[in-house]
Amino acid sequence: MNSRQQTILQMVIDQGQVSVTDLAKATGVSEVTIRQDLNTLEKLSYLRRAHGFAVSLDSDDVETRMMNNYTLKRELAEFAAS
């Protein structure tokens, strides 16, 4: 999973539902690229796609919880390791 996909997933988890347009604006890429990323994330079972939106799975599985605040957790881990 690349950093853009991590950003997308974090936004969806935080907001519950995010439009393709909003995701494109937030990440600075085209809506086509966002749709490709959403397809990838849906295949990995991180989120669900709806017409024009990405929707959180509201899941308590370990992989979904790992992605909550992923950036912050990664920064903390890097700080702790330094």
From TrEMBL:
Lineage: unclassified sequences, metagenomes, organismal metagenomes
SMART domains reported for this sequence: HTH_DEOR
Matching PANTHER family: DEOR FAMILY REGULATORY PROTEIN (PTHR30363:SF59), HTH-TYPE TRANSCRIPTIONAL REGULATOR SRLR-RELATED (PTHR30363)
Keyword annotations from UniProtKB, A to Z: DNA-binding, Transcription, Transcription regulation
Organism: human gut metagenome
Protein name: DeoR-like protein helix-turn-helix protein
Location of the HTH deoR-type domain: 1-56
A GO molecular-function descriptor: DNA-binding transcription factor activity
InterPro entries given in the database record: Carb_Metab_HTH_regulators (IPR050313), DeoR_HTH (IPR001034), Tscrpt_reg_HTH_DeoR_CS (IPR018356), WH-like_DNA-bd_sf (IPR036388), WH_DNA-bd_sf (IPR036390)
